[in-house]
């Protein structure tokens, strides 16, 4: 049988996995050994079993390579040891249950000692990996927005039972490895809420193809964190263009709803190696190499996530999934409305006191128009309730008047009570009240337009 594929960590020689089996008992959390050594009663395993390097896994050692005996020291005494391959099948499930969720790699290491042992451990190993997949999504902040497609037995009859076990271990481990090593996935939650609406309130489904977008572990790790995450999440996602479904992403290119004088064209984003001068004010978070400033066509974004968020927002508005219900513009620097929009554009995106729970802030600039700045404040289900979203669009123009405008978008039906609550919280009583009360202050050259 071929060795397990490159997605699993490198494991130590079989001689490093040994122990005595005079009885197996689970340890409480307070008794568990430090991370440098995984210990299940008298079974010890080097920490190298759960961490390793390299893009390939060596051929499996045969059972004849197992050590005849070693001594393990516990409590100052010595006990006789036996090879793990000699342990009765009735004992291995108890040993497997001593491993916590974070130590699943140790289970895989045990299963690689020889071919016969893998089959004996598979009834415990496979359910353990599946349970880890179930609990992983909430822990990384994606919750119900993403659904796993978990490989299940039986597999095609052409595969032997041993091949099926190896295939399942590889597929489950690939998912766990990529999600656990993928970085900060929570940055995509507001974007995934947009996708949820764009897909007709259906969660994103991740299957084999999503986790197959990278051909090797090296290719996965060499990609920028936000980009590799989006490649996994966006694989196969389509948008409706005139009644036809088109892929949102074509490789690294993203489908723009409008670019120049052309409708529906793919354009490649460019990741910036350093912070753009346009994003060095306090209104923007510090340069993050894992989610760098990005240029797309004539627009600059404070990070790659913002670029994706703006494009999805355009698809949402043009498809009618979210509607603009109010807008206003202010032209005079002397008025409070004008100054308040400026304050909101100058506030840090990470200022939780300003934006409140459930809000995400994205920024867009226009190349060659240094004064032009668009900011989206996305208020998802945490702020608006399950399945709903409101977006506040703040724009500072770069013309002679440098006018400032506010637009309100929502999925909520009239009378938009919940939207009003979150808008007032973000904009403040004065600006929020003027927008919501549809005040037409033409005598002060403040124009309110109600859609």
Overall mean pLDDT stands at 75
Supply the helix-strand structural class.
Answer: alpha+beta
Distance between the termini: 66 Å
| Number of beta strands | 21
CATH-level-2 architecture of one domain: 2-Layer Sandwich
Percentage of residues in DSSP E strands: 15-25%
Shape: elongated
| Oligomer state of the chains in this structure | single chain
Q: Name the helicity range.
A: 25-40%
Biggest sheet record: 9 strands, antiparallel
Walk across the major sheet and give the strand order.
Answer: 13-14-15-17-18-19-20-16-21
By CATH, the topology of one domain is: TATA-Binding Protein
Ranges where pLDDT stays below 50 over 5 or more residues in a row are 1-76, 440-451
In short:
This protein has 451 residues and is α+β, with helices and mostly antiparallel strands.
């Amino acid at each position: 049988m071929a060795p397990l594929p490159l997605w699993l960590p490198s494991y130590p020689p079989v001689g490093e996995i040994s122990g005595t089996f005079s009885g197996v008992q689970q340890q409480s959390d307070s008794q568990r050994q430090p991370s440098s050594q995984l210990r299940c009663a008298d079974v010890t395993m080097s920490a190298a079993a759960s961490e390793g390097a390299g893009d390939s896994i060596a051929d499996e050692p045969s059972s004849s390579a197992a050590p005849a005996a070693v001594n393990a020291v516990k409590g100052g005494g010595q006990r006789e040891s036996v090879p793990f391959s000699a342990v009765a099948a009735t004992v291995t499930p108890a040993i497997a249950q001593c491993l916590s969720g974070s130590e699943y790699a140790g289970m895989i290491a045990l299963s690689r000692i020889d071919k016969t042992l893998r089959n004996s451990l598979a009834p415990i190993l496979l359910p353990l990996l599946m349970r880890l997949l179930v609990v992983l999504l909430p822990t990384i902040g994606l919750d119900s927005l993403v659904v796993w497609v978990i490989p299940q037995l039986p597999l095609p009859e052409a595969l032997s039972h041993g091949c099926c076990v190896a295939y399942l271990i590889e597929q489950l481990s690939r998912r766990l490895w990529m999600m656990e090593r993928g970085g900060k996935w929570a940055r995509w939650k507001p974007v995934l809420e947009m996708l949820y609406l764009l897909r007709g309130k259906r969660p994103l489904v991740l299957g084999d193809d999503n986790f197959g977008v990278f051909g090797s572990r090296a290719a996965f790790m060499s990609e920028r964190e936000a980009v590799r995450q989006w490649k996994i999440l966006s694989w196969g996602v389509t948008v409706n263009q005139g009644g036809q479904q088109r892929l949102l992403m074509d490789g690294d290119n993203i489908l723009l709803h409008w670019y120049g004088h052309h409708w529906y064209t793919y354009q490649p984003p460019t990741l910036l190696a350093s912070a753009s001068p346009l994003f060095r004010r306090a209104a923007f978070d510090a340069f993050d190499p894992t989610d760098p400033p990005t240029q797309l066509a004539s627009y600059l974004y404070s990070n790659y996530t913002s670029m994706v968020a703006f494009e999805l927002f355009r698809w949402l508005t043009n498809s009618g999934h979210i509607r603009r219900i109010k807008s206003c513009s202010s032209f005079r620097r002397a008025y409070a409305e004008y100054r308040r929009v400026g304050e909101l554009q100058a506030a840090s995106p990470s200022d939780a006191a300003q934006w409140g729970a459930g809000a995400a802030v994205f920024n867009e600039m226009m190349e060659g128009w240094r004064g032009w700045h668009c900011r989206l404040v996305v208020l998802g289900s945490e702020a608006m309730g399950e399945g709903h979203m409101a977006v506040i669009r703040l724009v500072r123009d770069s013309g002679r008047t440098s006018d400032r405008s506010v637009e309100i978008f929502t999925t909520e039906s009239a009378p938009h009570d919940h939207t009003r609550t979150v808008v007032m919280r973000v904009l403040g009583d004065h600006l929020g009240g003027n927008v919501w009360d549809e005040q037409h202050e033409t005598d002060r050259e403040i124009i309110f337009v109600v859609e």
